[in-house]
Amino acid sequence: xxxxxxxxxxxxxxxxxxxxxxxxxxxxxxxxxxxxxxxxxxxxxxxxxxxxxxxxxxxxxxxxxxxxxxxxxxxxxxxxxxxxxxxxxxxxxxxxxxxxxxxxxxxxxxxxxxxxxxxxxxxxxxxxxxxxxxxxxxxxxxxxxxx
Length: 147
Description:
By secondary structure, the protein is mostly beta strands. It is built from 2 helices and 11 strands. It has helices spanning about 75-80, 135-145, and strands at about 1-5, 10, 20, 30-35, 45-50, 55-60, 90-95, 105, 110-115, 120-125, 135. The strands form 2 sheets. Strands 3-4-5-6-7-9-10 form a 7-stranded mixed β-barrel. A two-stranded antiparallel sheet has the order 1-2. The protein starts with a strand and ends with a helix.
């Protein structure tokens, strides 16, 4: 299946890899996304809308830069995604990369949970204040590289 993207142009994707957000992503109508993992942007990936070329989010696994990240996600979120005992879970956070890379942030307050096996996802807005909406990712990455 071929899709158009603003960043990567027309690309071929495997329809079996489409991730469905049953309720969309807050603020967006799109429900079908594909996770693009270009090697040159690692550890960052792209959550690209299948239906809207201009909608794509930079995402990352939060444990890459904050190993102690352990949000309290309610059981209802896992039920909504039809998790079975053997289903693989992927947790991502949206990253904002402004022109000044030193101001790069990650939204730790609203992780994206993906049931990898069933290709279902949702963005869960946490009810606690344990994690910030704008975590300074640049500082964290610099500290880790010097450790």
